[in-house]
């Protein structure tokens, strides 16, 4: 199925590995032009070698000025930005009563505000062309909190609330805002945590995000797409 992404311009943050990398590759496979961002310039260059005409912009997405620079890079090169996939590494582990104020603020900055900044930078261009796709990579914890990941639960659920609110404001402009909520996937971060058991393939997650960015997903807006293999058991 042609997703209608040929010639579209996408910005993907935290694209050097894991789910961000898989998403960038999936979008490129569908014909999109891609701006890649991550802190690790060397790893990012390796991803860029697999994507024709990719633009690499190394940097820390928590830097307040970087999201606007990513969008501007896309516009300067290709004259437009159609897709934003905002992704960031997860915060440290910790239970709700053990985390500090400083840790909470850092998590909100990285996993909520950084994504909002990237969306805000892209929205004027999307409104002008009356088409756009914004996808935030979050976690299944927005539906089913994970006890030892309180920082992720807090920050990503805040982003989910922003997504629901912004979706209403942007629908009339042909712009959708959705959240992709992965469960356990075979990424470096998962291995570092020592998690075992059934895991998803990052490539499958990337393809799910690509669908949310597609023409066919035109009426999917303000929703969470769970990509967790059925791990979340709640009915809501």
Q: Can you describe what's shown?
A:
By secondary structure, the protein is of the alpha/beta class. 42% of the residues lie in helices and 15% in strands. 45% of the residues are buried. The chain has helices spanning 18-29, 41-48, 66-78, 101-129, 150-170, 188-193, 202-212, and strands at 9-12, 33-38, 55-58, 83-86, 132-137, 175-182, 224-227. The protein contains seven helices and seven strands, in the order βαβαβαβαβαβααβ. The model has no long low-confidence stretch (mean pLDDT 93). Strands 3-2-1-4-5-6-7 form a seven-stranded parallel β-sheet, with helices on both faces. α1 (18-29) packs across α7, α3 (66-78) runs parallel beside α4 and α4 (101-129) packs parallel to α5. The longest helix has 29 residues, at 101-129. The two termini are 30 Å apart. α2 links the parallel β2 and β3 (55-58). It has one domain: Rossmann fold, CATH 3.40.50.
Sum this structure up briefly.
This protein has 236 residues and is an alpha/beta fold. It has helices at 18-29, 41-48, 66-78, 101-129, 150-170, 188-193, 202-212, and strands at residues 9-12, 33-38, 55-58, 83-86, 132-137, 175-182, 224-227. Strand 1 (9-12), helix 1 and strand 2 (33-38) form a beta-alpha-beta unit.
